[in-house]
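Reading a protein record of the kind used here takes only a little practice. To see the layout at work, look at the sequence and tokens printed below.
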Amino acid sequence: MPKPLTLADNYKEAQKNIASLFAKDGAPITLTYQEALARGIRNNFDYRIKLVNNALQAGQLQVAKFTMFPDLKTTSSLYTRNNFYATSGVTDTGSPTDVLNATPKTLRSLREGFTWNILDLGMGYVRAKQQGHRVLIAEEESRKQLQLLAQDIRIAYWKAYSAQKLLREAGELQVILQKTDKNMQAAIADNLIPKEDILKFRNALLSGDRQLVQLSHKLDKALIDLKHLLKLPLDNPITLKKPPASISRVQNLEHINFKKLDTISLIMRPELHSQKYMEKIAALGIKAAIIQAIPGITANQGWNYNSNKFLINKIWIDKSIDLSWSLLNLVSLPTAMDGARTQVKYEEMKSMALTLAVMTQTRYATSQYVNLAKEYAIANKQAENAEALYKLSKNRNLASMASKQQVVYSKLQSMIAKMDRDLILADLSTALGELYLSAGFDVLPLDAYNQPMNETIKYISKNFDMQNKRNFSDYVNYTYDNIIKQFPAKHPTKAEKTVKTATKIVVNKKPSTAKNTHDKRVYTLQIFGSYNSNDVAKRKNTLLKTNKNVYAGCAKFKGRDWYVLTYGTYTSPSKARSSLHDLPKSYQNKEAFVRNTNEIKWDHCEPTQSKLMTAFKQTFKRNVAVKLIKDYQYYAKSAYHKIVDAWVA
């Protein structure tokens, strides 16, 4: 019968958990923003759970690898009975013989052998590949959790610091408000003093006092959130130092290049990486469905021993090959294939939806930051104006030109304006963090969990120094340029050059004066002709170095494509013949003759080996595309590591 935990057991467990939570790390009295991030990496439970999941998935990968190897088994048995196992011989006619077979009452046997199923080998390979992708997914999820942790700490720290800074000044004001409220109550009790103005003034003071109470609540909540993220004692007081200037500096992002930002986001975002791995897992599911439907071949071999003293050979080696085929798996193969293909399409649709969501997030984060920057500019002017009014009222009070109540009221309005400005600045800092988050930027080093605290703080400080020197737009341009550099410049191969040369005649420029040939007859001098398009192309390229009036085209000659090289354009045959002496020297002694430009095709001239070249070009482009895809997979995997290192340096 199970026994429930007693009250004493629960109390001991609670005391043990509390003691273990804060046993290792001492609670700091003051905390900088960089120290908060560093402590968050080492102590935050959500992030540590993701790291444990990484180790778990890696362990499952090692287990999956072992399923591909032969299964080695050692079996032994001890068999006994109360009498002898004996049999007597019988002839074909049923007559007994004198032959008697028997075995001892007790038998001991041992077998050492291995079994290797080819089907298990194939399935083990596929499962290991799938588990390998799950390990990579776990790593990307840890990276995403680290980015979210940095953003949560940024929000909590900035709000807590803003409220902490204002409350120092608000404490003095609350003392003045309490004294003023007592004076207001006394004035209200006096029947000789008009009540309307006093009540209006008191209402304004109470409204301001209420906002100060709300600010105090935000401070408490932000500090509790920060202590939770950093695993700090919840009841210990803490003082926050000023955050880095980079997270509060207002930037102009109205002209950001979204094409570059999209490229960075779609390459560096961990969610997209995880989704691509899910697509690969789904694609491997198709192979798994096919492998399950094929016959299974099992190879067995083992060493055997038996203690039966009547055996001639007590030790022997056996071998066997077994063939098995599940007809049910074969019949269900079409259904399994359809399910696997549907899973692939499902993952592809998720990838497209996630791509759109990422692009939308970058626009939303940019729009939010731009609008908050405009709002902050207005709030800053309001705070400056309210502070100027307070100083004016204070000076007028010293000159006996304004009442003390006016000074208190203007001071309260100045405090409220500063409060609004700092809260907007906190939101602005949060929006900037969302921008870096939408671009997949790693504020924290991925391996910081295993690094000393001082090294992590130095890295974070260096990161924010970089942000302070460059705007987010500069980061986008710099990172985009580094991504492009990761892809090596492609030099044309010999085959590509051949394709380019062979297709020069296909897209040919018509002679400039040969326009509107329906209204005006235009003539040219044909200086060369051949069935080989490459000969014409080579001659044309040679002549174009010294003369720009050379054109190439094609016509029909004896039912075949005839490629021609022409010189000049003229309005009449006589003008064309009179220009024979203007031909290039190497062609003056050859038989050039006048042709009408309408007889030559200038825009739709195909090479002699058109079908062959078309097939060649398609094959070439396909091979280039496959190579580019493989290069992209390789560089996208390591791009952000190199980019961040170069960016920080």
